Amino acid sequence: MMDLFSLFEWINNTIFAVPVTVLFLVSGLFMTLYTGVVQVRGLPRLFRLLTGGVRRKKRDDGAPMKTIGVFQALCTAMATTIGMGNLVGPSVAIIVGGPGALFWVMVYIFFGAALKFAEVTFALFTRKKLDNGYIVGGPVQYLQFVSPFLGYAYSFVMIFLFAGWSGVQSNTLASILVLEGVPEWLTGLGLSAFLLFVLAGGAKRVAEFATKLVPLMFVLYLVAALSILLRDLSLLGNIIKLIFSSAFNPSASIGGFAGVSLLYAMRIGVERGIFITESGIGTAAIAHSMSDVEHPVDQGLLTLATSIADLLISGMSGLLVMVTGVWLQGAFRSTLVYEAFKFNSPPLAQYVLIVCFMLFIITTVMGNGFNGMRTFGGLTKNRFVNWYIAFSVLIVFSGSLLAVPLVWEAMATFMFMASLINLIGILILSVKYRHVLKY
Asked: Is 12 inside a domain boundary?
């Protein structure tokens, strides 16, 4: 296991480290300027879409399309991007790269929103309907417009990455529940059974669960986090000052972070930002491509809601581990945010928080399973999908038993590979079909 861990760690630290940081930041900045800072300019229209509704696509050809509702597509996509990555990712960034890394997490979430807007818009623009009514859309489809090779290469990497991400979620939940006396294998078994049940019901069942669970877990977490953060405003203010001062001058930090360089803090923050938001990876576009919205750009603008949620939850998660001091206690572990709540909340609230954490993980596993199933189906023309579901279920169970550092390093390697392929495609499409992004 150590040899395999060392291999993934070497790949991530030597091949992908600096190039990925620069490429993603530059790509996010380019797309932000290219779209006229859509993250800000698009907010009024986003508000109108959320309050006034979205024009739905008319099916005037007589053949039904197996789509899902606009809000269901948004929640299904949010199920994967808003999950334990938002809770664990910021603490990983802080532990590895120091307090300043949290600043760069937030910076990438902002710039990455423009990338996600483009990904989703092109997913709607390039999707196609199969004879059986199924929709084929997302990165695999829009990359075909650039090069068939890119589409196939992306899908091959992603069918493993989606399953692996679910394994990471299972690993995190098992690490949390074992603190409450629940064996890891039992957590893996329960999560695997739920995933099998949901995926067996197809897109409609996934969307129905996501629509109910995502808003609930979002509100629960915000209320619980604010109840701790607002207890000591002076301490919160000092922590925020530390984050900003460490972002550009890591040597101003404390403890073992005094030797962290600016580039390293930036790299860790951007890396975690990619993992948290999936902006630049293209995965959010898969669920969005099934929306029955009429205008592709409307669905693209709706993704801004996901980025706002990412900013809120990730920022609060990072602040929690620092305000409560758990970031200075011991080595890296995936349970830091849980510990922050456990030792700073009333006994009854702890059980509510366990439910909240379970919701984050369940929805993410569900969303990853759905995205993996759709990607595999697009590659095989919806054949042998049941075999992929069985593979995903097996990975979820196995993930609950694996070592935490190995799982994280392996997923980072696959994520970088897929991201490079997707970024090349989305930048080419944005220049070639710029009119698609206008509204």
From this structure: yes
Count of domains observed in the chain: 1
Kindly state whether residue 58 falls inside one of the protein's structural domains: no
Query: Can you tell me the mean pLDDT for 122-146?
Result: 80
| CATH number (domain holding residue 384) | 1.10.4160
DSSP letters spanning 360-371? HHHHHHHHHHHH
Q: Measured between alpha carbons, how far is 182 from 197 in angstroms, rounded to an integer?
A: 22
Q: What percent of the chain has pLDDT above 90?
A: 19
Mean pLDDT of the 109-137 span:
84
| In 53-138, alpha helices (H) | 70-81, 84-97, 100-126
Establish if 54 belongs to a structural domain.
Answer: no
Confidence of residue 180 (pLDDT cuts 50, 70, 90): confident
State the residue range of the domain holding 406.
2-49+65-437
User: What is the C-alpha separation between 264 and 277, in angstroms, rounded?
Assistant: 20
56 inside domain: no
Beta carbons within 8 Å of 172's beta carbon, 6+ residues apart: 84, 88, 334, 335, 361
What's the whole-model pTM score? 0.82
273 vs 225: CA distance, rounded Å: 20
Nearest Cα neighbor of 371 from 140, 108, 83 is 140
CA distances from 407 to 181, 185, 273, 399 (A): 22, 16, 18, 8
User: Rounded distance, CA 174 to CA 98, Å?
Assistant: 26
Q: Give the span between the Cα atoms of 284 and 85, in whole angstroms.
A: 14
Who contacts 233 (Cβ-Cβ below 8 Å, separation ≥6)? Answer: none
Distance CA 63, CA 263 (A): 54
